[in-house]
User: Fold these one by one.
Assistant:
Number 1:
Amino acid sequence: MEIDNYYDIVVEKLIGWSELLVKMLPNLVLAIVVLIAFVFAGKLIRNLSEKLLNRAINNQSLTSIISKVIYVMVVTIGAFAALTLLDLDKTVSSLLAGAGIIGLALGFAFQDIATNFIAGFFMAIKRPFKIGQVIHCEGHSGIIKHIGIRTTEITSFQGQEVIIPNKMLFQNPLVNDSENTYKRIDLNVGVSYGEDLERVRDIAIESVRNTPNINKNKDIDLVYLAFGSSSIDFRIMIWVEFKSQLEFLKSQSEAIIAIKKAFDKEDIMIPFPIRTLDFGIKGGEKLNEVFPQETMQVNSGKEANQ
């Protein structure tokens, strides 16, 4: 008897579901059509957004991610619309609430990753640098090899591959050497207190006029900085064309060589550190040239007698 009752209940349920299915069949068909339409619309919008973003951003990885996000959003809207047509409003509300909670949890769990993605997005729009340019940021320097949505890869001047999170490049001061055609060489030099400073200035400026890659349209500036412990310090500033980091360093090296040669030729003293004993105003004098010969002989005699 109990088995018959269970059988009747099951049959009743199946009949009720069958009637409900027949009743909802038009809405079910319409929901499927709506979902398929949104899928095709999502693909169309994705392809269109890729073309537009490639023109605006010119970053393939970022363009791909944004277009895929747009596609998923369109399909998701279509799925919710299809569920609404099936009178599953409570299910839609539950899904939205669940998605909100999951999104919040993922946001906290992957905060750094999300920050890097957002930084990569804004950098792709602003374009502070390009592949092949030389940048310096937070102690890292090199040539940009790849710009990703989450990280940027550079090749250091020593040949090392360095992967930098986009958050670091976005939030910290960034120097882009390749944005400007010319870069200034600053050389700090010291000369003896006994030198004629005006003469030193003229000789130093003249010595670097043929520095490789020099910009002849800009003046060579020299300013005296301070009275140092063993020298009078000055800075000479030369503008050169920035072709690469190596070429810049070569120009700087040639300027140093030129100044040293000119000072040697003109007998201009670049003093040693204060630990060096200097006998004479210009430094490097011999004792027998500073003191009279008789004084040296008297002192030597006294030492011999002792």
Number 2:
Amino acid sequence: MPLTPAPDEPEDDLDDLPDTHPPQPVYYAEQALLGALLLEPHRLTDIAGIEPASFSNYAHGALFAAIRALPAPDPNHHAKDTTWLNAVLTAAREHARGLTASYLHTLIQICPLPRHASAYARMVETEHALRTLRAHAERLAHTATDGTLPHPVPTTLAEADALARAVDDIAARFPSHSGSLPRTPAPPSATNSDNDKEAVEEERLLLATATAHPADVEQMRWLTADDFAHPLHAGLWQCLTALARRRAPVDPVTVLWEAQQRGLLASGAEPAELLDLLSAPAGSAEYWGERILQRSVLATARHVSLRIEAFTDDPAMTPYQLILGSRRALAELSAARARWHHATSPAPTTTLAPAPTRAAAPPRAGPPRTTAPPARISR
């Protein structure tokens, strides 16, 4: 059924535009879905879970919005008349001027089977879920590396919560089923040389200060060796925590000896250098520990975002694998979040309950007073 072209229809339609990037499979799924709906508009009742924004192509989204907005025509009249198609084109061109009657005709022609419209819609929905999750992961990565934020960890964790909600929303639309775990290789951790230098200096200050004040080490169980950027510093922190928990003497020499027992000197570290490192305390151990933990939380968030981005870039990733892999990645950040809250939450103050007040005892009764009898006057 030929469509009536619009009076100001451009000579070049969407098919004539130069395509610098070959279309992805979802592009053809979108075309098939739109062709099915244009040919058999009643198929729209079988479509659920997608919106105009679900389409990767803006013109496709505008066309879907127009199809959904207009009442479906009578099937018998639609098979003989193009009135409804012309109305769809007019409505869609208000938002996508590049749409033409010839492109709608192309969509109708290339649709394999209109009765498969729900399957095409599921493909569109799947790809939209990937794009949505990738956008959240990119925002998380940007926030985790934004050095201008006054409170980087709470802001980053808020973005992580938004990403987790997006995963839950996708899980609600794609029921779980048995399947394999994602096999997408984990991306390498991103590093920054300037931040590395700052991290190394803060770790050195923590180790020296904790050696001088070993009692503080027991209060810093929220800090682990994995939070350290430098492997030697991570090993020295393990030495310090081991000595503190054994109630052993702690000073630069005992820490050095513990490091030797643990094989840390085999990496080429010089004993004199370690003694110098451990003998220059400054500030508070808890302050340096929180700085190191903050850096670790942000680095974990950055790595989680890269991991989820890698999932969304994998063309073989199924919705089930995407959900499972994303939740496992976010679990790593949840563990770091719990330690951050432990480190930064104020210690609970123990308020002693007031001692119960006793009722005032009544005055103790003394012995009964005896009134001396009047003296007898002898006559």
